[in-house]
Automatic annotation (TrEMBL):
GO biological process, one term: outer dynein arm assembly
Protein's UniProt keywords contain DNA repair: no
Coiled coil ranges: 105-167
Pfam families the UniProt entry points to: CS (PF04969)
GO cellular component: dynein axonemal particle; extracellular region; neuron projection; nucleus
MF annotations from Gene Ontology: nuclear estrogen receptor binding
Protein's UniProt name: Dynein axonemal assembly factor 4
Annotated source species: Conger conger
Compartments in which it is found: Cell projection, Neuron projection; Dynein axonemal particle; Nucleus
UniProtKB keywords: Cell projection, Coiled coil, Cytoplasm, Neurogenesis, Nucleus, Repeat, TPR repeat
Intervals holding TPR repeats: 359-392
Length: 416
């Protein structure tokens, strides 16, 4: 039985009511306050303060303050006036029981209404955040398209100017060549003039001379042909530190070949997505976009980015692994397991280059299994992760916790 608090005090005015309840040295963190328009209760075990108010109060405007070893209620009366007493008489227990029951029902209804209002507010905030993000993305896309259009116009103008300049230079060179040909033809057709010199009386000497004016021919100097040659390129050989009998050259080459194939987008998939921009056709750009959205907590938008990237190229394991992380946040546990398994299938053969990616995929699938209470399957993935990184203390601690859960469930089953 709780101890009823009797040493409380109260004062009132025409519109206000003040009640002071001592806490008897109890920690304020253990105090539970329950109040409606006609019922007050303060529970701090083993003590209990309960009062059935003489008249109703305005519960929305009233407040309760806890501190300095006392609970102080500041209550607003619904109807102004001086009360004859604080609480109703305890004679009619059925009436008091009904008041208590109504108070509980009102509190439940108010709690449900507050929860619905809070859910609606959060939904509106999410909707507003999504609309804002879509607006920002549209503005960014418009800005990028504007920059691309301006750059395209600038390059087109430069190309037109270069074509005009080339045409003018070609016309000038052709004109010079025509002038040279005309001058040479004119030089060939002009006859020699025989000049007769008047000499001495008995000497009749005929002097032949050429009276051709000098014609300067303009020569065009052409550049010398370029010399041909070969450039030798030396590639650094891939060196494996292990012995030849333990070398993983074949696995490395197979993994590199798969990575090269994964970077090539099939033309059939690209043809189905003609309405996308150049950036949106790039799976790597979409993956970075999804990573940024994941970092901001917008997991649904991140999943959409990874979905489009996977539609363009289904052979990139990082896309499935990152989408599995989003599904974990969204509690889509079966989808997280499916994407992690696809990532692990693409991350074969197991080579040092893809070890970090395999570690993430195992941990994400193991976490999803544990969330579904499939602890045995989850422990297998954590053990696979420890084989990749045996010195990871966080993974070791998580694996130990899973073992303890499995052992505890087994003991309970044996006891039953």
């Amino acid at each position: 039985m709780p101890l009823i608090v009797q040493d409380y005090s109260w004062t009132q005015s025409e519109s206000m009511l003040y009640i002071s309840v001592p806490l008897k040295g109890i920690n304020p963190g253990k105090v539970d306050v329950f109040a409606t328009d006609e019922y007050l209760k303060v529970s701090f075990p083993p003590f209990l303060f309960e009062v059935f108010l003489f008249e109703p109060i305005d519960d929305d405007k009233s407040v309760a303050q806890i501190g300095n070893g006392v609970v102080i209620f500041t209550l607003h009366k619904k109807n102004e006036g001086i009360w004859e007493q604080l609480s109703l008489k305890n004679d009619d227990k059925d009436k008091l029981k009904d008041i208590r029951l109504r108070a509980v029902l009102k509190a439940q209804e108010k709690s449900e209404a507050d929860a619905k209002a809070e859910a609606a507010r959060k939904q509106e905030e999410k909707k507003y955040a999504l609309q804002s993000m879509m607006k920002l993305e549209d503005e960014e896309r418009t800005k990028i398209n504007k920059i691309k259009e301006e750059e395209r116009e600038r390059v087109s103008a430069e190309m037109e100017a270069w074509k005009i300049k080339q045409k003018q230079e070609a016309e000038k060179e052709m004109s010079q060549r025509k002038q040279i040909i005309i001058d040479e033809e004119h030089k060939k057709r002009k006859p020699n003039i025989i000049s007769v010199s008047k000499s001495a009386e008995n000497k009749g000497t005929v002097k032949h001379g050429c009276q051709n004016p000098s014609i300067e021919s303009k020569q065009v100097t052409l550049p010398a042909p370029r010399c041909s040659g070969n450039i030798k390129v030396k590639f650094t050989p891939r060196v494996f530190p292990t012995a030849l009998r333990e070398s993983r050259v074949d696995e490395e080459e197979e993994w590199l070949k798969k990575q090269a194939e994964a970077r090539r987008v099939s033309s059939a998939d690209a043809a189905e997505l003609d309405d996308l921009t150049d950036e949106e056709r790039n799976p790597d750009w979409l993956r970075e976009k999804g990573n940024k959205l994941f970092a901001t907590g917008n997991y649904l938008a991140a999943v959409s980015a990874y979905n489009l990237a996977i539609q363009l190229n289904r052979n990139i394991p990082a896309l499935y692994s990152n989408r599995a992380a989003c599904h974990l946040k969204l509690r889509n546990l079966h989808k997280a397991i499916e994407d992690s398994s696809k990532a692990l299938r693409l991350l074969t053969p197991a080579v040092p280059d893809n070890a970090p990616a395999r570690l993430k995929a195992h941990l994400r699938r193991g976490t999803a299994f544990c969330e579904l209470e499939l602890y045995t399957e989850g422990l297998q993935d954590y053990q696979s992760a420890l084989k990749i990184d045996p010195h990871n203390e966080a993974v070791q601690a998580d694996a130990q916790k899973i073992r303890q859960i499995i052992e505890g469930s087994q003991e309970e089953h044996v006891q039953h």
